Amino acid sequence: MIGVNKVILVGRVDGAPETSTTKAGKTICTMRLRMIDQSKDGQRERLVEVATWGDLATKCQGLGIGEAVCVDGFISSNTYADKNGKTRYGMNVTAWTVQVLGGGAATPVPAPANNDVPW
C-alpha cells in the first residue's frame, strides 16, 4: 500500500527562528509553529517544530514572532543524543513551502530547489 506524507499547517511563529549550517554546508532554519484548536471543551494550543532548508531557510530566518504562516510539507523523524548520551527520537515537519499570511494577499516564500532538501 502506498502512503501519503503531506502536512498543511496554519499558525503563528512561536519564538525567533533559529538558523544554522550543517557539516555538509547546508542551511537549516527551525521554528516552532503555534496552533490553537477550538473544541467544545475550550481551546488547546499545539506547538510543532518546523524545519526549512537551503534558500527557504534563508528566507524564513526573517520571520517575526507571532507572524501568521501557512506551511506545506511532510512529517520527518530524527534521532539525537541527549546531554546524558541517551538516544532520543523526535518528529517534526519539514517544509516545502511557507506562505506569510497577513491582512492583504499572502506572500509566498519560494520553495527550495530539489538539491536543498537533505535526502
Topology, pairings included?
Layout: E1 7-21, E2 27-39, E3 42-53, H1 54-60, E4 68-81, E5 87-101, E6 107-109
Parallel strand pairs: 3-5
Antiparallel strand pairs: 1-2, 1-4, 2-3, 4-5, 5-6
Descriptive keywords:
mainly beta, OB fold (Dihydrolipoamide Acetyltransferase, E2P), five-stranded mixed beta barrel, 1 helix, 6 strands, 6% helix, 61% strand
What can you see in these coordinates?
This protein is mainly beta and 119 residues long. It has a single domain, classed as Nucleic acid-binding proteins (OB fold (Dihydrolipoamide Acetyltransferase, E2P)), CATH 2.40.50. The chain has one helix spanning 54-60; strands spanning 7-21, 27-39, 42-53, 68-81, 87-101, 107-109. A five-stranded mixed beta barrel has the order 1-2-3-5-4. A hairpin with a 5-residue loop joins β5 (87-101) and β6 (107-109). The longest helix has 7 residues, at 54-60. It is globular.
Task: State the strand order across the main sheet.
Answer: 1-2-3-5-4
Give the termini separation.
22 Å
Using the alpha-carbon principal axes, give the shape.
globular
Radius of gyration: 15 Å
CATH fold name, please?
Answer: OB fold (Dihydrolipoamide Acetyltransferase, E2P)
What name goes with the CATH superfamily?
A: Nucleic acid-binding proteins
Low-confidence stretches: none
- The helical percent reads under 10%
Mean pLDDT: 86
CATH architecture annotation = Beta Barrel
**What oligomeric state do these chains adopt?**
single chain
CATH class: Mainly Beta
Tally of helical runs: 1
Total beta strands: 6
How many structural units, i.e. domains? 1
Helix/strand order, N-terminal first: EEEHEEE
> Largest beta sheet, briefly?
5 strands, mixed, barrel
Structural class by sheet pairing and helices: mainly beta
- Strand percent estimate: over 45%
